[in-house]
Structure formats: structure tokens, C-alpha cells
């Protein structure tokens, strides 16, 4: 019962005008503390007459005030709709099916929007949607909100209206037609039936016009070979799930080779089922994701790869073309060829060698095998560029023969190796138009820079493979004054309406049997898939031509695209810049990778320095008259001796924030669109500071972290042999660690109980889960300087380990046979040797996030109960309770907790997307943006699990297996991550928990995690 009684401390309070009462209200301390006397300067401080009591009063107040200020989160007032759109329910996400193809990356997507803002990319899982998002596509949601985008069209560098741009282009075309001048449309590969039809109509109306297709990273040699044999300029859509033996010669098919997106089919064959799994040979120069996943990897130069390909051709087809392969490789390549021939239709060979003869041999070998994985129906249409036609265009421009050049989706000033020639030719073109998302290097030098919308603001269609059709639809109104290239083409062709009208009308003839609304809803449509038949070709001539290749003198540079940066289109995306490379674990940098043996010869090194950062040597690199001074060096285990690797996509300056202008432009070395160049390579002075998130390179024989075995042992031995359970002492008896606990367990059989399963056989280290987690959970970007201090904020990391001996099994054997402490055979010297990776190691990837332990050590040490365990198995964080003691991080054996050293949101010191209003539009309103002094970590996406529960409850139904997802499991295209409710005994995750390959990370610690792993099986 409430009381209305009023109490007074003294009679003075009865007088409302009392000066004493006023003084008490306005002053914490009655006596003024002479703070200036002792804080003003050193002399005043030393001679201060301030009393000890006054000092303690001051310190006590200011410390409390500072603590409160440090923990105070930002306050934002929310303003309701005046008129609420009926399609939008506040707090409820809407999803739009769409597809993306930017000339390099492609996928079928679902885009999550909140209150009209796209905030996350998911994979479209409907039948026919076969291409999943990689890390770059997941990050493209942030590129939508890039403040450096071109916001309106420009003519001669000055802002202009679209009517002025249209007039400028039309008058130039009219002038070209009157004078017989050449009009060129230079685009990336479009794979868009409607756009290609518009271009064909434009050319028919303008007889002097032609269309040139330019891919920054060329697959022209493979296209030329396929066109020679099959009469179509397309690529084979390999189905690796149908292969029991895979031989790859220089093809990183788990990376970006021929567009990538092969990891899903590959993973299906890599999970041991009924005692069988596929076998994978990899022959390559750079260490790649495909090489890391291989059962047998040979590190060899491209010249040796060509000879190896000829040898395999001889074995499979019975030909006898002369081969000059190094003896150290011949035996292993012969084994691979013989096994490939024995596999027959269950075998497949792929190659990334940029040589038409090599690509012809790939076709010949797969035809001879009658390979089921070599799919010539439903060909890929995502690369169509021609090296010869691009070179011809540059020559014509330099000769002054091009009157009007209209470019879309290309940036040749940056990506062409002979950029100077292109720039010279561009000056001779009367009118150049660059349709571009950014005012990039090419747009800056063009007459007209036409601002185009992001694909999430655009209409379009795609035929990524023959017989399939997908629609690109806008998920938000255009943020800026932009216009699609296609809308301009509609106008130039004199058609009425806009591109949407044209697209819808054109789609009617493609999606026969379906409707526009259904295709728009589903995002995909599968029609009649045509087959392709080969013509007769003299493959022996190609083999003879390839066998003439010689090993280059000096070093061989092998250019590649990095998992995070790709071809460089999204260089201004901080998520991708901070994304650690899966193999080197370095972010915010470009570098050359060097073999350990070559590094030792040249005096190049990497070292962990006192502050925990990684430092490395510089080198000078010269190729074709181009010299790069001070190129940072990473010593890369597995790099072929005599070769160095370097990533494309870096070194950009235009339309990038200063923090993102990193690395060197390796396209300068991409002469003749050949990714292999002869170079000279020597050490340079100085030392480079890298931002590397992982200093520990090897497992050092700790086989309980990543458990693995061979297929033979897996099939012939009991699980207790290859999945050994850790033992602990209880009452002087050895018992399994899982049977012992420090605490009594709750009854978790009631309600939901979530587990996340991670299959090490299916994980390729692609990193899509890392970026998806960033997007879903508002993970901040901290920059190179903070990463170097080991302050990365990734909630999910993918640890990469190399073997010290040739295999991890040999590492374990060496560790088990240590004798004593000292000497080479002792544990001290032995572990020292185990720190160094092998020159050609086995590789293992392991995603690690908060393990959501049922007996969590972090929970017992938190003094304010900020971290606690939920009934559904999630370890939860109450951010407003956390005071940043970091006891939990110290007590976590998995080291998965992240501390906010600074306020990363709205802080100019961290000038990334969270520091501007446009960039913050990507933030997920369901997840709190953490402030400084707060510990954060994986929440197992509790906002997603609760949303699923509420949705099912509102609909009055049971939850179906597969509905529960986390950001990482949703993003995983290989099936390595499976999330679900173990209390649903029919669920996939409940089945996986009982699998004999299941184990927990650091099981002997007794934390009883809710994240489970599956033993890695190698088919060696």
C-alpha cells in the first residue's frame, strides 16, 4: 500500500526559499573542492592543500561518473509511421527472391528487408535455384549503402541531368551514323536474355555498331576451346557430386575458377556414406582452397602442369605424345592418370591452365572417360569474353576508328594490363560513356559518367545456364539519381515505356507454362535444357602443341583472385577488406606468396613480433618491363618452388575511402590475359606490418582439436579407434570425460534445445558464413591497426592448420614418440619442430564460434551475471549488464569472446559503414549495436530462433525441421553447418549428434558444448 507521507531532514526544508536548501540541491559537496589547485599543473599538484577527504570525494564522484558515461549506450528516439504502408508490418521481415550477376559473381538469392531496407542476403533454396552466395555476394548488401557511389550522372566531370545525358548520347550516335563512325558497346558478360536482345536491336538500327564482351578475369581460352568442339561460346557446368575421382590441374574449382559455385556438389561426394567418398588429386602452383581440400596435392609450376596434363591424356586415351615432366612428379601423376582411367565415367578432369590446347585436352579426356560429371547440357553462360576482340578494340581506339564508346559493367582503365594503350585510345574517342556504380578509374576519364543503380535497386533477368531463367527485382527504391543501362537502351532503340515493361513482355516468351508473377515470386524458372554435341577435333595436335611448353627461367608469377576481394569490384567494402584470407589468415593487404625453400634462399621471412603482430620482408618484382617495389611477402607453405602468387583486385584509388586504398594493382602484370608470367624476384629493404588474425600455423600434434582419419581406417576399425574419447580420472579410475561434470545438469528434454553440427569433411573454408554473421549480427569493422593488435571482432573464425610433417597423422605419431624433454627426440625440441609447417602440408579448416557450453566456464566467473545459459541451450549475453571485466574471455578455453575496446559505432576513428547514416542502414534492428567496454560473442542467432518460434506459434503449427537456422548455417552452401533442435528426434541435427563421427571440441575440459564436430576423413 502506497504512502503519501512526506518527511523532512530538518526544519529548514519547510522553508521553500531557504538558501541552505538551494545549496544542498545544487551541490553534491557543500564545500567546494579546489580541483584546479591540484590538477591544474604539476607544481600546484605538489603544493596543494587539498585535504585527503576532499580528494577521495572528488575521485569517488568522478570515477563513478566516468564509469556511468562509459557504459551508457546511445539513445535514439523512434518515430512511428504517419501513414503505414499496408505491405510493411513493423518488426516483421519481408523477403524478395532475386538473382545477381555482376560479370564475376552470380547467385540466386532471397533478400531480407526490414521496414523497406535490405539488410541481409540469404540463399534461394527453391528447386532450380542452384547457385548460392559466396562471401562477396553476402557482403554486397553493404555495397548498396556505399557513400562513395556515383549519386547522379556527370558530363565532363560536372553534375548533369539525365535528359542532358540522353541528348548527349543520341547526338553522338547520330553524328557517328552520319560520318560512318564506329559505335562500340563494351560490356561485361551479361547472361541476360532481355539485355542481349536490346543490344541486338540497337546494332540492327545502327549498322556501324558492334558489341564487345570483356571479362576482367578472362576464361577466353576455355571458351575458345569449347566453341571449337561444341560450336557454342559457353562453359561446362560440372557436377562433382557424380564423380568418385577428381583430378584438377591448376583449377581452383572451390574458389573462383570458371565462376565457382562448385562447392555444393563437391561436398556431397566428400562426406563418407556407406564407406565411400570421392578422391581428389590437385596439381597446382599456389596453395588454394581446392588444394587444401585435396587428398593428394602436388605443388608444381604451370609448365610442369602442362606436361602432366599431356601425360594424363596419354594414359586415358592411349596416345603417345612426348612428355618432358620432372621425374619427381612423374610417378605421382602417372598414378593419378591410371586411377582416372580406372574410374571411367565416375572420373572427371578439370584444368585452369590459360591455354587453348590445354583446354582442348580437358574436353578430350572427359569425352574419353564418358564422364558423368562433365555436363554438356545446361551450359554455363557466365563468361563469354574474347581476348582477341578486346585487343582489337584497343587497337581500333588507338587508331582513332571508334567514334562513340558506351561501356557498362567494365573498368578497363583499372583492369587492363595495357591500361595506358586503352587510355590513349579513349582520348581519341569522340564520346565515351561509362555506366558505372562508382566514379571509378574509367568513369573519371569518360565524357559521360552515368550513375547506375545497385542490383538490389534494379530490374533484370538472367540465364546463368542454358534452359534456366531467373529474375532480378528491386528490393528498395533507388537511393540516388540513377538509371539502368537497359533503360537508356530502350530509349536509344526508340521504344515506348521503360525496361520493366520490356522485361515483362520479353519474359512471356521464355517462361511458357508459367506466369510472370510466379517467376517473380520464386525468382527462378527451369525450362527445356538443351544438350550439346561435339564435332570431330584433332586433339593430338593440341597435345603436341602443349608438350612443347618449357619451364621459364627465373620465377613464375601466378595471378589469382582472392576469396574476399575477387576481381576488385567491391574494394570499398570494409567487410571484405577485413575478411581474413582463408589460407594466409591476413586481412587488409595484398602480397606475394613465396615457397618456404625460396624464401630461405632469398632471405625472406615472416615473424611474430613483440606486440603479437606479423611482420614480413619486402621484395622487388619485375615482369614485362613493369616493376613493383616493396611488395610485401608471405611465406606460404604449399607454394610450388620457383613460383610466387599474387592476388588481383587490389591497388584501386578512385571512389574508395583512404582506408580501403590498399595493396598493389596486379592487373598491371596480367599481360595478354595470361595469369602466368615470367618475372625476376629479389629481396628489398624494409619490413611490412601485416594484419594477421592467426599466428598459430600448425596443430603441433594436438589431434583432439581436429580429429581425422583415413577412409581405410574409418571402414575397417571401430569408432573408438579413430574417434577416441578423452579419459579423465574419477575416484582413481579412468572414465570418459563426457561422463564427468562439475555441476548437475538441468533436464533439457523439455522444449527446444539447439545444437549446431559442423562437418569438417564438407567445410571448404570459403568464409561465406563469416560475412553472413557480420550482416546478421551487426559485427563492427575495426580496421588494420586494431586487427594487428589481435582485436578483431569476428564472431566466427575459421581456423586453418597445416601439418608439420607431410600429414597430420605423422604429426600425431611424432608427438606420441617423444622421448624425454630435451634433445631432438624430446618434447621440447620436438614441439619446436612441430611449430613449422611442411613445405607441402595437409590443410584443415575448422569453424569456431561460441560453443554454447551447457557447463559454461564464462558464466561462473561473470561478477554481474551478464552472461548466462538459456533453457534452449544458448549462452546469452545481457549487454547492458556487462561491465567489461573480461573474466569470461580469460576463462573461455575456445577464445571466442570479443571485447569492444572502443565505440565503433558513430566514431570517426573507425570511418567505416557504422560511421555514416547511409552505412548504418544495413544494421539489423533485431540485434543490439554494442558499445565500448562490452564483451560480445556468437549468440547462436537467438533473434532468428525466437522469430521462428513466434511465427509458428502465430500460425498455430509445429515447427518443421530446417526452419531453425543461424546466419552461418543459412549461408553454408556445402551443408557443413546444420542447425536444429536436438529434442526433435526426427531432425537432421538429432541424427548427427548420434553419428559415430561426432565429437566436441576440447571434450576433456568438460564444458559440454552445444556445437558438435564430425571427424575429418581423408581418402588417401
UniProtKB/TrEMBL annotation:
Highest taxon, organism lineage: Bacteria
Domain 4Fe-4S ferredoxin-type: 754-784, 841-872, 873-902
Gene3D superfamilies with a match to the protein in the record: 3.30.70.20, 3.40.50.740
One Pfam family of this chain: Fer4_11
InterPro entries named among the record's database cross-references: 4Fe4S_Fe-S-bd, TAT_signal_bac_arc, TAT_var_transloc_signal_dom
NCBIfam families attached to this UniProt entry: MoCo_extend_TAT, TAT_signal_seq
Protein name in the entry: 4Fe-4S dicluster domain-containing protein
Species assigned in the record: Flavobacterium restrictum
Lineage: Bacteria, Pseudomonadati, Bacteroidota, Flavobacteriia, Flavobacteriales
Amino acid at each position: 500500500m502506497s504512502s503519501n507521507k512526506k518527511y523532512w531532514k530538518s526544519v529548514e526544508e519547510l522553508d521553500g526559499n531557504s538558501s541552505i536548501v538551494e545549496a544542498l540541491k545544487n551541490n553534491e559537496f557543500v564545500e567546494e573542492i579546489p580541483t584546479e589547485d591540484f590538477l591544474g599543473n604539476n607544481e600546484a599538484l605538489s603544493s596543494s592543500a587539498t585535504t585527503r577527504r576532499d580528494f577521495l570525494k572528488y575521485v569517488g564522484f568522478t570515477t563513478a561518473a566516468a564509469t556511468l558515461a562509459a557504459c551508457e549506450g546511445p539513445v535514439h528516439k523512434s518515430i512511428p509511421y504517419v501513414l503505414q504502408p499496408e505491405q510493411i508490418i513493423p518488426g516483421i521481415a519481408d523477403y524478395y527472391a532475386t538473382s545477381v550477376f555482376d560479370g564475376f559473381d552470380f547467385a540466386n538469392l532471397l533478400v531480407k528487408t526490414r521496414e523497406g531496407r535490405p539488410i541481409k542476403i540469404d540463399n534461394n533454396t527453391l528447386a532450380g535455384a542452384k547457385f548460392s552466395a559466396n562471401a562477396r555476394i553476402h557482403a554486397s548488401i553493404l555495397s548498396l549503402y556505399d557513400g562513395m557511389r556515383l549519386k547522379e550522372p556527370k558530363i565532363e566531370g560536372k553534375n548533369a541531368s539525365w535528359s542532358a545525358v540522353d541528348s548527349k548520347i543520341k547526338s553522338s550516335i547520330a553524328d557517328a551514323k552520319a560520318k560512318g563512325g564506329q559505335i562500340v558497346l563494351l560490356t561485361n558478360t551479361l547472361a541476360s536474355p532481355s539485355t542481349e536482345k536490346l543490344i541486338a536491336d540497337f546494332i540492327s538500327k545502327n549498322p556501324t555498331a558492334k558489341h564487345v564482351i570483356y571479362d576482367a578475369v578472362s576464361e577466353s581460352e576455355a571458351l575458345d576451346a569449347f566453341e571449337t568442339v561444341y560450336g557454342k561460346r559457353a562453359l561446362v557446368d560440372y557436377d562433382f557430386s557424380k564423380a568418385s575421382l577428381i583430378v584438377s590441374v591448376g583449377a581452383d574449382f572451390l574458389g573462383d575458377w570458371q565462376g565457382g559455385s562448385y562447392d555444393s556438389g563437391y561436398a556431397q561426394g566428400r562426406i563418407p556414406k556407406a564407406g565411400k567418398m570421392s578422391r581428389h588429386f590437385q596439381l597446382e602452383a599456389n596453395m588454394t582452397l581446392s588444394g587444401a581440400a585435396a587428398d593428394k596435392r602436388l605443388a608444381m609450376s604451370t609448365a610442369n602442369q602442362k606436361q602432366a596434363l599431356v601425360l594424363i591424356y596419354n594414359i586415358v586415351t592411349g596416345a603417345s605424345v612426348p612428355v618432358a615432366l620432372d621425374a619427381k612428379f612423374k610417378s605421382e601423376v602417372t598414378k593419378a592418370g591410371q586411377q582416372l582411367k580406372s574410374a571411367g565415367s565416375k572420373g572427371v578432369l578439370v584444368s585452369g591452365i590459360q591455354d587453348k590446347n590445354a583446354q582442348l585436352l580437358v574436353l578430350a579426356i572427359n569425352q574419353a572417360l564418358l564422364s558423368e560429371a562433365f555436363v554438356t547440357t545446361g551450359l554455363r553462360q557466365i563468361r563469354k569474353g574474347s581476348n582477341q576482340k578486346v585487343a582489337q578494340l584497343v587497337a581500333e581506339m588507338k587508331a582513332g576508328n571508334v567514334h562513340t564508346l558506351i561501356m557498362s559493367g567494365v573498368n578497363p582503365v583499372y583492369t587492363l594490363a595495357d591500361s595506358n594503350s586503352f587510355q590513349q585510345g579513349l582520348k581519341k574517342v569522340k564520346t565515351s560513356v561509362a555506366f558505372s556504380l562508382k566514379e571509378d578509374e574509367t568513369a573519371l576519364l569518360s565524357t559521360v559518367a552515368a550513375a547506375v543503380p545497385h542490383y538490389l535497386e534494379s530490374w533484370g533477368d538472367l540465364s546463368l545456364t542454358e534452359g534456366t531463367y531467373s529474375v532480378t527485382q528491386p528490393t528498395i527504391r533507388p537511393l540516388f539519381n540513377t538509371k539502368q543501362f537497359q533503360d537508356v537502351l530502350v530509349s536509344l532503340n526508340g521504344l515506348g515505356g521503360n525496361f520493366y515493361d520490356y522485361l515483362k513482355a520479353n519474359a512471356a516468351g521464355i517462361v511458357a507454362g508459367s506466369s510472370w508473377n510466379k517467376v517473380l515470386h520464386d525468382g527462378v524458372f527451369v525450362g527445356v535444357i538443351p544438350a550439346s554435341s561435339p564435332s570431330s577435333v584433332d586433339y593430338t595436335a593440341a597435345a603436341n602443341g602443349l608438350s612443347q611448353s618449357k619451364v621459364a627461367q627465373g620465377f613464375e608469377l601466378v595471378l589469382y583472385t582472392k576469396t574476399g576481394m575477387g576481381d576488385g569490384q567491391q574494394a570499398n567494402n570494409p567487410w571484405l577488406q577485413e575478411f581474413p584470407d582463408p589460407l594466409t589468415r591476413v586481412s587488409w593487404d595484398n602480397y606475394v606468396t613465396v615457397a618456404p625453400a625460396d624464401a630461405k634462399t632469398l632471405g625472406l621471412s615472416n615473424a611474430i613480433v613483440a606486440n603479437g603482430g606479423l611482420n614480413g620482408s619486402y621484395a622487388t618484382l619485375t615482369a614485362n618491363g613493369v616493376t613493383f617495389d616493396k611488395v610485401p611477402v608471405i611465406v606460404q607453405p604449399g607454394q610450388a618452388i620457383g613460383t610466387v602468387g599474387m592476388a588481383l583486385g587490389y591497388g584501386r584509388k578512385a571512389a574508395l575511402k583512404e582506408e580501403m586504398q590498399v595493396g598493389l594493382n596486379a592487373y598491371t602484370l596480367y599481360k595478354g590475359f595470361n595469369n602466368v608470367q615470367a618475372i625476376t624476384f629479389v629481396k628489398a629493404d624494409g619490413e611490412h606490418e601485416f594484419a594477421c588474425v592467426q599466428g598459430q600455423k600448425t596443430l603441433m600434434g594436438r589431434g583432439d582439436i581436429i580429429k581425422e582419419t583415413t577412409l581405410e581406417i574409418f571402414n575397417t576399425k571401430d569408432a573408438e579407434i579413430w574417434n577416441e574419447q578423452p579419459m579423465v580420472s574419477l575416484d582413481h579410475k579412468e572414465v570418459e570425460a563426457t561422463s564427468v561434470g562439475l555441476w548437475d545438469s538441468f533436464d533439457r528434454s523439455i522444449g527446444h534445445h539447439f545444437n549446431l553440427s559442423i562437418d569438417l569433411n564438407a567445410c571448404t573454408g570459403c568464409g561465406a558464413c563469416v560475412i553472413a554473421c557480420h550482416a546478421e549480427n551487426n559485427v563492427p569493422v575495426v580496421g588494420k591497426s586494431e586487427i594487428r593488435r589481435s582485436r578483431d571482432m569476428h564472431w566466427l573464425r575459421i581456423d586453418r592448420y597445416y601439418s608439420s610433417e607431410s600429414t597430420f597423422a605423422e604429426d600425431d605419431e611424432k608427438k606420441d614418440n617423444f622421448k624425454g624433454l630435451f634433445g631432438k627426440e624430446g618434447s621440447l625440441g620436438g614441439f619446436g619442430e612441430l611449430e613449422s609447417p611442411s613445405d607441402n602440408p595437409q590443410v584443415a579448416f575448422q569453424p569456431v564460434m561460441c560453443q554454447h557450453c551447457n557447463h559454461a566456464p564464462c558464466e561462473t566467473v561473470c561478477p554481474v551475471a551478464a552472461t548466462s545459459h538459456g533453457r534452449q541451450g544458448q549462452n546469452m549475453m545481457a549487454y547492458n549488464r556487462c561491465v567489461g571485466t573480461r573474466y569470461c574471455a580469460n576463462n573461455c578455453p575456445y577464445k571466442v569472446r570479443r571485447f569492444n575496446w572502443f565505440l565503433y559505432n558513430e566514431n570517426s576513428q573507425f570511418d567505416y559503414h557504422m560511421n555514416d547514416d547511409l552505412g548504418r542502414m544495413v544494421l539489423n534492428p533485431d540485434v543490439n549495436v554494442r558499445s565500448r567496454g562490452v564483451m560480445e560473442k556468437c549468440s547462436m542467432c537467438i533473434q532468428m530462433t525466437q522469430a521462428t518460434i513466434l511465427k509458428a506459434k502465430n500460425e498455430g503449427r509445429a515447427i518443421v525441421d530446417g526452419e531453425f537456422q543461424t546466419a552461418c548455417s543459412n549461408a553454408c552452401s556445402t551443408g557443413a553447418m546444420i542447425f536444429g533442435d536436438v529434442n526433435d528426434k526426427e531432425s537432421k541435427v538429432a541424427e548427427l549428434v548420434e553419428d559415430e563421427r561426432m565429437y566436441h571440441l576440447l571434450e576433456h575440459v568438460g564444458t559440454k558444448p552445444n556445437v558438435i564436430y564430425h571427424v575429418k576423413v581423408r581418402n588417401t
